[in-house]
Amino acid sequence: MEKRRFVKTLVACAVGSVALGSLALPGIAHAQSWKPNKPITIIVPWAAGGSTDQVTRATAAELEDALKQKVVIVNQPGASGSIGTKSALEAAKDGYTWSAGAAQDLGAYETLGMLKTRIGEWHLFLNVANVGLLGVNMNTKYMNAKDLIDAMKARPSQISVATAGVTSSGHAAMDLVAKATGVKYRHVTYDGGNPAVVATVAGETEVTSQLAVEQAEMVRGKRLRPLATISDQPLELEGFGTIDPLSKTVPGFKAPVNYFGIFIPKGVPDEVVKTVEAVWKNNIAKSAALKKYAVSKGALFSPLYGAEAQTAVAPAVQANAWSLFETGKAKVSPDTVGIPKPQ
User: Fold this and answer.
1) What CATH number corresponds to the domain at position 330?
2) Type and span of the H or E element at 89
3) Of 248, 269, 290, which one is at a domain's C-terminal end?
4) pLDDT class for 242, splitting at 50, 70, 90?
5) Cβ atoms of 224 and 132 closer than 8 Å
6) Helices then strands (H, E): number in the chain?
7) Is the dihedral angle over the CA atoms 83, 59, 54, 296 positive or is it negative?
8) 96-140 pLDDT, tens per residue?
């Protein structure tokens, strides 16, 4: 069977999502009962420039146009995203303070003992899905994924890998690599994906496993060498070409889809949720700007919300929470906080 490429999946998903949107309400004006009378704040719990920050700012521009109100992005990094998320969770439930990030991070905070909240306690509005990437400093000798894995086996716990911290997408992806290959690595954490990538470019670390969207510009600029997607699917990166999947080197390797989006804590007025749902159906799902962002950055355009979003994120939430627990990083067994073990 011919190998599928990420770009084909992207197109299929985009078409399907738009089709769903077209079956929905004919326009936000017919469904919108909430008309915000002051700016909306979206707390990005990671540093500026990272994957969450990038896609949230692109989405905020679309929201401003649809809601006719300013959307303010506030970066509040720290404690693997839990500090900013806590601020959104504890804010007044008036519908004016939201959060953003990767759903798998949000779903891991309780089992880590960082923040008492569960994925089901939030309204999820997803925009893209991302894939992790093994990228290395250009001065290293690693030319492909096998070179890196062999070096990690020869020098356990010595090769440095930069991520945005425990629970981050990069850390979850690297732990999947370690589990599949048996390697050990030296984990170096930063306050966001962008600082982690910059650290690898600068030579502070040899490797980063952060998302392709965070590494794309450095790869195109030949400041990072991409070895493999942390996936079983290749990636077509605009302006670069094809990046082979890790499954080509490690047969059978798979990684759950990592969904990103905007999260609104439950308890806000129902009219707020219904209005944002209408925006997702009629504006976000048809956004040319977000589709362009996905294609140029190497992401998957995936505007989901409601029950469909909760179902979509479940595999990554499960895999991440259980990986953290089984590697001794989590304090609480996931099954005690409503996260069943993956089959």
Assistant:
1) 3.40.190.150
2) helix 82-90
3) 248
4) very high
5) no
6) 13, 13
7) positive
8) 999 999 999 999 999 999 999 999 999 999 999 999 999 999 999
User: Running DSSP on this structure, what letter comes out for residue 336?
Assistant: G
Residue found by looking up tokens 């290959």 in the block: 181
Q: What is the pTM of this model?
A: 0.81
What CATH number did the domain enclosing 178 receive?
A: 3.40.190.10
Q: Which residues contact 334 (CB under 8 A, 6 or more apart)?
A: 111, 318, 321, 322, 325, 340, 341
Say how far apart CA 99 and CA 264 lie, in whole Å.
Answer: 6
Cα gap 170→105, rounded to integer Å: 11
Closest CA to 228 of 252, 250, 213: 250
Give the integer Cα–Cα distance in Å for 162 and 196: 5
Determine, yes or no, domain membership for 1: no
Q: Do 15 and 76 have their domain in common? A: yes
> How many structural domains compose the chain?
2
- By C-alpha distance, which of 36, 94, 70, 26 is closest to 275? 36
**140 and 235 assigned to the same domain:** yes
Q: Among 226, 248, 270, identify where a domain stops.
A: 248
C-alpha R_g of the chain:
19
pLDDT value of position 33: 83
Q: Which two tokens stand for residue 166?
A: 């425990």
The parent domain of residue 56 ranges over 6-129+256-337
**3-state DSSP of 228-261:** EECCCCCEEECCCEEECEHHHCCCCCCCCCEEEE
Angle between helices 6-22 and 288-297 (to 10 degrees): 170
**Rounded CA gap, 115 and 274, in Å?**
27
Rounded-to-integer distance, Cα 113 and Cα 332, Å: 7
How long a stretch of residues is the chain? 343
Residue type, 33: S
Q: Coil, helix or strand for 127?
A: strand
d(CA 197, CA 195): 5
For 106, which DSSP code? Answer: H
Whether 261 and 125 share a structural domain: yes
